[in-house]
Structure formats: C-alpha cells, structure tokens
Amino acid sequence: MFKAIVLPNVLYGLSVYGASGADLRLIQRFLTRCFKRRFFSRKLDVSTLLAKQDYSIYNQSILNNNPLGLIIPKKKRTKYNLRKKGVITLRLIQSASKIRL
C-alpha cells in the first residue's frame, strides 16, 4: 500500500521540484524510517528511485511523440577512436621491463 500511494507522489514531486542535497537526505531519512517500521520489505535509496523516475520520464517523452521530445537532444552515435589501445599498453609494458632491468 505504501508503494502504491505514498511513493509515486513523493517521486513525482521530486522529479518536478528538483530537490537539493538537504531535501534528498530528509526524504532518505523518511524512507529509512518507513523501512524500519516495515511499511515495505526492501530498503529504498532515494537517488536510485529518482534516477529511475527521470529515465522513465525521458523515455516516455521520446517514444510517445511528446512535445518535450522535440527539444531533447538526440543521442550521439559517433564513436571516437582517438588512440590505438595496443600501442599504449605495449609502451607501458616496455617501460616496466626497463625499470626491472
């Protein structure tokens, strides 16, 4: 019942309000107290819950042709290969072998 009534309202308010660190600590203490009083069975972390909520809102705005989806930047698909990884590791191995000699 706690997860159905209280938690969605708290998460919605947090994602809209944009709480500071002090506010997040206050809500985390509230969730810890509720866990100790056995309102729910798993310990919840407010930062994890908030990240899941933000990710959910982001996906809904992109996938459902929401007006917010028009202003959200698209994901970059460019991969940058600036260095060859094999050369760096080879140099590190060579420098380590010189030190041992």
For the secondary structure, the number of strands is 0
Number of domains: 1
| SS-based class | mainly alpha
Q: Would you identify the regions where 5 or more consecutive residues have pLDDT less than 50?
A: none
Q: What is the chain-wise order of helices and strands?
A: HHHHH
Main β-sheet description: none
Morphology call: flat
- How large a portion of the residues is in β-strands, by DSSP E? under 5%
The end-to-end span amounts to 68 Å
Q: Roughly how many Å is the radius of gyration?
A: 23 Å
Portion of residues within helices: 55-70%
Helical stretch tally: 5
Average pLDDT metric: 77
What features would you highlight for this structure?
5 helices, mainly alpha, 69% helix, 101 residues
Question: Would you mind describing this structure in some detail?
Answer:
With 101 residues, the protein is mostly helical. It has one domain. It is built from five helices and no strands. It is flat, with a radius of gyration of 23 Å.
What topology does this entry show?
Layout: H1 2-17, H2 21-36, H3 46-63, H4 68-71, H5 85-100
Helix pairs in contact: 1-3
Question: In short, what is this structure?
Answer:
The protein is an all-alpha fold.
